[in-house]
Amino acid sequence: MKIISTDEACSMLGVESLPGFIDSLSEHLPHRLGAYSIPTDSGAKCSLSKLLGDLLLPGAPIFIYVAEWGIWPSAENFDLFDGYRRSVGEDRPLKLAPVHVFETSDRSAFVSILSMALYFVWDAKVFDQSGTVLVTFSHDEWVEIETADPAVAREWSMELDPMELEPL
């Protein structure tokens, strides 16, 4: 896992603006699996993070951009989050380095970062470098999945079915 700034992410992606890149993905990805309520149970959040790691990481590099935090401060634990990041050598605060980049072998780190984003009720955008998938997590406790490939949309729908996510 690499932890980078939004400017570094823009450089990696060859774009001028990370939010602009993400907005463009959302506008151009034709297959939406729909929006679902994020489970309230921490075990279900962890299971969802693991499943998404299994589905996404074969298409690495995968980015998790923590786009917003501080909306529900009572749910946040920056000691835990910052401590995890320090354990992997990152001393910058989230506001200076909100982007996490994962390779196929980074499953446990991917699951850890995404799980914490879900536990702390943060906005997070998860996407691949080639721009074929976008998973949006909202602090309003919903998730939306978009993809370029109808076969991927069908496969992911079948994989997500056992999670019993509530459609919005």
Describe the 3D structure.
- By secondary structure, the protein is an alpha+beta fold.
- A seven-stranded antiparallel sheet has the order 1-4-3-5-6-7-2, with helices on both faces.
- The chain has one domain (2-162).
- The protein starts with a strand and ends in an 8-residue tail after the last helix.
- The model has no long low-confidence stretch (mean pLDDT 96).
- The chain has helices at 6-13, 18-28, 42-56, 78-87, 107-119, 150-160, and strands spanning 2-4, 31-37, 62-68, 99-102, 123-128, 133-137, 142-147.
- Helix 3 packs across helix 5 (107-119).
- It contains six helices and seven strands, in the order βααβαβαβαβββα.
- Helices cover 40% and strands 23% of the residues.
Outline of the structure:
Helix content is 40%, strand content 23%.
Topology pattern, helix = H, strand = E: EHHEHEHEHEEEH
N- and C-termini, Cα separation: 33 Å
Sheet-strand content, in percent, reads: 15-25%
Helical content band? 40-55%
Number of strands: 7
Shape: globular
The residue ranges in which pLDDT falls below 50 over 5 or more consecutive positions are none
| Nearest-integer average pLDDT | 96
Class by alpha and beta content: alpha+beta
Main-sheet strand order equals 1-4-3-5-6-7-2
Supply Rg.
Answer: 15 Å
Count of alpha/pi helices: 6
